[in-house]
């Protein structure tokens, strides 16, 4: 759920698809090739029985938790976090550093982001059902535990922003027609009186970001693609929509952040003046733009401002790692905060009095936990998430390398190698998006593969990845789609030059668009691969664009191409993996969620059917109570165990 204090270029980052968690006893109702687990919610086809030893082997790695910062209490003395003690993540309260995590919500579905009412602990949280992403909004009193739904129970809702008085919210919803990403305004105490503030004029994503200090205008983002993002101002009294940043050409990404508290202008990130997204400020009286980070050639990806507008902070994404800066919104002076943990930072939020800055910090050796930074830059850790009894000091940190692709492009990749002699089998992990980026987050999955399978893990940021400038992110668009697949071919070439890596034992794994990359790599490089794992992947771009939920169809056409255009349709069919099953000669494991609104289950079904018809080796797992990736621990348990078994059988054997 979007909060104006923490918005920015991360607004549209997609759900992580590396699925991990602990083991339960696997009891199944067996048929010849299909069985179900987890009360019938997990369907396994042609997957062998998983030996009990694998559950025992993975148990510690799968008993890892994390804690993400959500908000301060109204007095600033405690914090709200999300963490998992049962099957899914819920909201907890922590009243002191290292203190007890008091669970506040107890739902069967994971609770999304929260937005706290100003000067109150009352909050709004989002929650969907079975991973369908039709998020509903709930008003929660954390002191009594009372809650009730304030959305309509049918539409998709999010991006909640309270006004400064705390009597209204602006939010995004598809309730008008089930398709359009409109902006609505509501007093949460009278949700039946919610009013449509902006009927989205097209299929792009529209959402509120901040209320003007006068309470009569909204700062609005319009997202068409990662390289075409516009900023508007919506006059709530007149209904007038004014374009502030961007043009009809659509060649820039402009993300609104916040109005300055004196109402004289607004902060935003933009790549209008650079290949990277820079922090900027526009004075609305003079129309002058001041670029704050003009000397920093990396993306600004987080921003937060204190309630009184006197303090701010931002982070930059430098080679996948976060660097934190303090920033004065009035003088524009900024300074880097030294001696921070080396990792990825998110969740920037100032306490109500502005004296503390909350951070969620993730490092290669520690899962996400919450820290508070005081005005003297003293960093205090507030949560200590369990890591299953593992000694994380033994965990491997990645090395950043670059390899040359077919056209001379240098492609970055993070390489993890086991702490023993090679040559090692290799697992190539390909991120989704495609406008996403692999960053060296803590991953018990990666460490499990390193320690238990003895495999090296390589996570490339192929062309089309975010984080390396707008030119790089556009290199795979439209008819250039398979150039990113060629980057995987170049990576296979690079692996063959490394004496401690085994080019004869390589697997590929990826989710969403990364799943497409897995399938496409299997089409082009089957003779160089031993195993492939496709998680909620696109198997045919035309059927994907036809069947993905209508509220996001135009957003995906902007990236992949418009299948209604005859030439583009012909191209999309030509590069779709399910049209080239005859070239796939590598064992395949396909993982899917039945309720996936992004990559529908039909994408998995058609590639599995085609592989089976062609007599290929294919395992298939479908969770009937999941969507775009697995959020429920019991399903992640089985997925993780099956993946290890799959790699044991098809990747590890030599010869």
Q: What does this 3D model show about the protein?
A:
With 655 residues, the chain is of the alpha+beta class. The chain has a domain at 29-62 and 389-650: 3-Layer(aba) Sandwich (Rossmann fold), CATH 3.40.50.1820. The chain starts with 28 loop residues before the first strand and ends in a 5-residue tail after the last helix.
Q: What is the compact description of this entry?
A:
The chain is α+β, with helices and mostly antiparallel strands and 655 residues long. It has a domain at 29-62 and 389-650: 3-Layer(aba) Sandwich (Rossmann fold), CATH 3.40.50.
Secondary-structure blueprint of this entry?
Layout: E1 29-30, E2 34-37, E3 42-45, H1 52-62, E4 67-72, E5 79-83, E6 90-94, E7 101-103, E8 114-116, E9 123-127, E10 136-140, E11 147-149, E12 157-162, E13 169-173, E14 182-186, E15 195-198, E16 205-211, E17 217-225, E18 228-235, E19 241-245, E20 254-259, E21 265-270, E22 278-283, E23 289-291, E24 299-305, E25 312-318, E26 321-327, E27 334-336, E28 344-350, E29 356-363, E30 366-374, E31 379-381, E32 399-404, E33 410-416, E34 424-430, H2 444-452, E35 456-460, H3 470-473, H4 481-496, E36 501-511, H5 513-525, E37 531-535, H6 541-547, H7 550-560, H8 566-575, E38 588-593, H9 601-613, E39 618-623, H10 633-650
Parallel strand pairs: 34-35, 34-36, 36-37, 37-38, 38-39
Antiparallel strand pairs: 1-2, 2-3, 3-39, 4-5, 5-6, 6-7, 8-9, 9-10, 10-11, 12-13, 13-14, 14-15, 16-17, 17-18, 18-19, 20-21, 21-22, 22-23, 24-25, 25-26, 26-27, 28-29, 29-30, 30-31, 32-33, 33-35
Helix pairs in contact: 1-2, 1-10, 4-5, 6-7
């Amino acid at each position: 759920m979007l909060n104006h204090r923490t918005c920015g270029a991360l607004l549209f980052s997609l759900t992580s698809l590396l699925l991990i968690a602990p083991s339960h006893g696997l009891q199944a109702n067996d048929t010849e090739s299909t069985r179900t687990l987890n009360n019938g919610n997990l369907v396994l086809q042609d997957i062998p029985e998983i030996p009990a030893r694998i559950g025992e082997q993975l148990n510690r790695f799968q008993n890892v938790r994390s804690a993400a910062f959500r908000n301060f209490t109204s007095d600033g003395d405690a914090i709200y976090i999300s963490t998992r003690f049962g099957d899914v993540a819920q909201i907890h309260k922590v009243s002191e550093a290292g203190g007890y995590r008091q669970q506040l919500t107890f739902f069967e579905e994971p609770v999304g982001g929260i937005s706290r009412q100003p000067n109150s602990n009352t909050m709004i949280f989002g929650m969907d059902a079975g991973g369908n992403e039709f998020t509903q909004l709930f008003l929660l009193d954390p002191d009594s535990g009372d809650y009730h739904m304030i959305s309509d129970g049918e539409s998709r809702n999010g991006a909640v922003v309270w006004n400064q008085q705390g009597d209204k919210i602006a939010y995004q919803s598809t309730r008008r027609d089930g398709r359009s990403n409109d902006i609505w305004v509501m007093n949460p105490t009278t949700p039946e009186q919610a009013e449509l503030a902006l009927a989205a004029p097209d299929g792009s994503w529209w959402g509120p970001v901040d209320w003007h200090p006068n309470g009569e205008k909204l700062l609005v983002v319009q997202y068409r693609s990662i390289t075409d993002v516009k900023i508007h101002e919506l006059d709530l009294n007149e209904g007038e929509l004014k374009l502030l940043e961007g043009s009809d050409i659509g060649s820039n990404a402009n993300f609104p952040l916040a109005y300055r508290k004196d109402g004289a202008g607004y902060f935003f990130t933009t790549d209008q003046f650079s290949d990277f997204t820079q922090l900027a400020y526009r004075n609305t009286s003079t129309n002058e733009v001041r670029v704050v980070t003009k000397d920093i050639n990396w993306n600004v990806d987080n921003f937060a401002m204190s309630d009184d507008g006197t303090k701010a902070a931002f982070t930059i994404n430098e080679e996948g790692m976060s660097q934190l800066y303090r920033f004065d919104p009035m003088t524009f002076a900024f300074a880097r905060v030294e001696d921070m943990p080396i990792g990825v930072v998110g969740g920037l939020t100032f306490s109500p009095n502005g004296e503390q800055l909350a951070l969620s910090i993730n490092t290669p050796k520690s899962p996400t936990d919450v820290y508070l930074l005081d005005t003297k830059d003293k960093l205090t850790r507030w949560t200590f998430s369990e890591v299953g009894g593992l000694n994380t000091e033994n965990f491997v940190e990645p090395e950043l390398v670059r390899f040359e692709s077919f056209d001379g492009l240098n492609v970055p990749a993070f390489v993890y190698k086991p702490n023993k002699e090679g040559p090692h089998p290799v697992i190539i992990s390909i991120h989704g998006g495609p406008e996403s980026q692999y960053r060296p987050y803590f991953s018990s999955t990666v460490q499990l593969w390193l320690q238990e399978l003895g495999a090296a893990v390589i996570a490339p940021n192929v062309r089309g990845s975010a984080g390396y400038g707008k030119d790089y992110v556009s290199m795979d668009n439209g008819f250039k789609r398979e150039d990113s697949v060629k980057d995987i071919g170049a990576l296979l070439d690079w692996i063959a030059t490394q004496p401690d890596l085994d080019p004869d034992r390589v697997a590929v794994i990826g989710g969403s668009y990364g799943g497409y990359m897995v399938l496409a790599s299997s089409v082009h490089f089957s003779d160089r691969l031993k195993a492939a794992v496709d998680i909620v992947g696109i198997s045919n771009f035309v059927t994907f664009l036809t069947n993905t939920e209508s509220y996001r169809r135009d957003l995906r056409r902007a990236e992949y191409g418009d299948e209604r255009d005859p030439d583009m349709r012909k191209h999309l069919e030509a590069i779709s993996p399910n049209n080239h099953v005859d070239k796939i000669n590598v064992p395949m494991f396909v993982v899917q969620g039945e309720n996936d609104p992004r990559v529908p289950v039909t994408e998995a079904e058609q590639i599995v059917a085609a592989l089976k018809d062609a007599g290929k080796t294919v395992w298939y797992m479908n969770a009937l109570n999941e969507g775009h990736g697995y959020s429920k621990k019991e399903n992640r348990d089985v997925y993780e165990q099956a993946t290890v078994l799959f790699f044991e059988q098809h990747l590890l054997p030599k010869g």
